[in-house]
Amino acid sequence: MEAPLEIIRSARERLGKDLVILTHHYQRPEVVAFGDFIGDSFMLAREASRSTARIIVFCGVHFMTEAACILARPDQQVYMPDPQAGCPMADMADADDVSAALQRIAELVPHRRIVPVAYINSSAAVKAIVGRAGGLCCTSSNAQAAVRHALTQGDLVLFLPDEFLGTNTAHRLGQDTVPVYNPHAAPRADGDQPTSGGLAAGDLENAKVVVWKGYCHVHTWFSPEMVAAAREKHPGCSIVVHPECRPEVLALADGSGSTAWLVEQVREASPGATVIIGTEVNLVLRLAHSLCPNMYRTTVSRLARLLQSFPEQNRMSVDPSVTADARLALDRMLALA
Ligand code: SF4
Questions:
Q1: With contact defined as beta carbons under 8 Å apart, do 76 and 56 qualify?
Q2: Regions in the chain scoring below 70 on pLDDT
């Protein structure tokens, strides 16, 4: 039996330009080492849309591979080393719940024009609903630009599924209080006012952004106490965090930004400086030398097994009935750059 490294090397030789391997920054360092392109979800979505390779191997989680399938040409095939690697945050926005939310918010504030913005961490079915409703996708690198764009198309943005990225983005755009739509909220007794998702019309009165109640368990693990403890331990350090962290954490950090931005901060730091990064552990490990178990599922052995025989169960596809509308939402995001 050939060793995994041998299998990967010979598959690369055999396939040449027919194969491209995309790896997310949060993958294990030994998997990242095989990436033709290493990036955050925005950069990888763009590379997937530009790739001329016949076979795209995506080392990441399910929603990223779906985005690659949506953007791929019909003659391209997209594979994942572990098709079970999902994203719990993406699963927090069910397509039927998103359709219902758009309808219910419209009933609460019929005079407002609602435009949805879906974080790329969402299913293809959710992206399709967003595309159909005139909205667009975003990543953490372009969330502000996406919300600003959406506000040129309407006057109330439903941001989903990440409550914290949505809230932090709304704060940056000057909105202090950000209402949260909770698809599982029990009906609220609010006098004569109709309510939905835990909200009444009055809650949306002055809002430009309403956010979905969803979160990333990796990024919400960071607390203000951790930031304070890090400052005490490393006086003079610089603390930078991902915008999926809670607003209380962002308020105490020195800066926040997408995964690509975090990488940049470390690259640009002066020699000997201490930069503390509040994000997924694999990125931190790789930059210096919190853990997302889903990102961790992709191993070198699984990558080798895939490249050896391209099993059908590793081939990814998206329901053709949602592809065109989901593509609209992704293309609108790519046009922002
Ligand atoms: S780090 Fe968070 S958002 Fe990213 S895949 Fe894991 S659970 Fe999803």
A1: yes
A2: 1, 190-192, 279-291, 337
Query: Terminus-to-terminus CA distance in the chain, angstroms?
Result: 46
pTM: 0.91
Fold of 4-85+295-318: Rossmann fold (3.40.50)
Find out whether 67 and 80 touch, Cβ atoms under 8 Å. Answer: no
Distance 23 CA to ligand 1 centre (A): 14
Distance 16 CA to ligand 1 centre (A): 31
pLDDT of residue 217: 86
**Ranges for all domains in the chain classified under CATH 3.40.50.10800:** 4-85+295-318, 90-214, 219-288
Topology of domain 90-214, per CATH? Rossmann fold (3.40.50)
> For residue 75, how far is its CA from the centre of ligand 1 (angstroms)?
30
pLDDT tens column, 203-237: 998 999 999 999 998 888 888 998 888 888 888 88
Closest of 206, 278, 284, 207 to residue 247, by C-alpha: 278
Atom of ligand 1 nearest to the CA of 60: 5
